[in-house]
Amino acid sequence: MYRQISGLLRPGGLFVNADHVASRQPQVQKLWEHHRTEMQRAQTKQDGEDWEGFWEAYAQTLGLSGGRRITDRVLGGWEGGVEEGLPLEWHFAELKAAGFSHPECFWRCDCDAIYGA
Q1: I need a labelling partner for 115 at 20 to 30 A (CA). Which of 24, 27, 89, 100 fits?
Q2: What pLDDT, on a 0 to 100 scale, did the predictor assign at position 67?
Q3: Distant-in-sequence, close-in-space partners of 112: CB < 8 Å, separation ≥ 6
Q4: Cα-flanking dihedrals φ and ψ of residue 113, to 5°?
């Protein structure tokens, strides 16, 4: 994917991606996942909507019926939980191999990051 995007950008262009990333340290990864679970619980208590409910409402807003079946199509069979992703170092190496210069992380909070090159 990074090679394809590199070929589409004009010279000097910027690619930015928001995704889940993992820690290289298993203990840190477990702490992040615990923290994310706690944040999700607090958010659900605050607004009364969970991740499944969000996608159900999204499908309804688009006029799609089918509930969970539509959610599975949109999310590719997502079953809940945090997708660990790969460490930023892996993404940086792949970006460089694809011809990008200066890979950088612009923002990170636990398992989520905005990075690019």
Answers
A1: 27
A2: 58
A3: 18, 19, 20, 21
A4: -150, 155
